[in-house]
Amino acid sequence: MANTYSQIYIQLVFVVKRRENLIPKEHREELHKFISGIVANRGQKLLAIFCMPDHAHILVSIKPSIAISDLARDVKAGSSGFINKQKWMSNKFQWQEGFGAFSYSQSAVNNVIQYILNQEEHHRKKTFKEEYHSFLKKFEVDFEDQYLFDWIDTI
Length: 155
Fold this sequence. Notes:
5 helices
């Protein structure tokens, strides 16, 4: 798109199906690299990524030429296929349906990057459910808890 200029920052948050702890710490870096490749192959720029055992956060600079839902779909489908091909677990790996997408200004990007990279420390104090609810409330997203992710009350 000639003469189109934008700077759109989106944090995507998505969850392992049934909120199981299926992303092994020893394979986290490999998964990060694979997801980075998906984002780059879609012509977008990955600014930060961190996969906890049961959920993932990524911050992307996204161009208006791709729908956020298409990028989320591609990342989730590609990464679940990669995990299954690697046979990191005996059962089939899947992400839950849906995702969170939260937008940020340029001035907030460094703080969001630090937040994402410090997920392990952050989740020593706050569950994923508490974290996700706080995002929804902070961004004034109307929601009904029954339609959010399948919650398992673990950290």
